[in-house]
Amino acid sequence: MATLIRPREDRVFAGVCAAVAHRFGCRVLVVRVLAAAGLMFFGVGLWPYLFLWVLIPSE
Questions:
Q1: Cα separation of 1 and 26, whole Å?
Q2: How far apart are CA 52 and CA 2, in angstroms?
Q3: Over pLDDT 70: what percentage of the chain?
Q4: What share of the chain is helix, strand, coil (3-state, %, to 5)?
């Protein structure tokens, strides 16, 4: 497994979804869809995203 680092080349907004996808070896699109669904349908996702944006170092 890769380390948890926000990549420069796969970013859309801050690179958090790309970092999580690369870390766990899944597709970035899947993580982005799950993050968007969590934000829209369950009302969660914004605070963890912001927290991870601050916590995960940039490449």
A1: 11
A2: 16
A3: 98
A4: 55, 5, 40
Tokens describing residue 6: 């926000």
What are the residues whose beta carbons fall under 8 Å from the beta carbon of 49, sequence distance 6 or more?
14, 16, 35, 39
Q: Which two tokens stand for residue 26?
A: 């899944």
Read out DSSP for 27-52? -HHHHHHHHHHHHHHSS-SHHHHHHH
Q: Report the 10 Å Cβ neighbour count for 38.
A: 15
Distance CA 57, CA 59 (A): 7
Give residue 1's pLDDT band: very low, low, confident or very high (50, 70, 90): low
Whole-number Å distance between alpha carbons of 30 and 21: 8
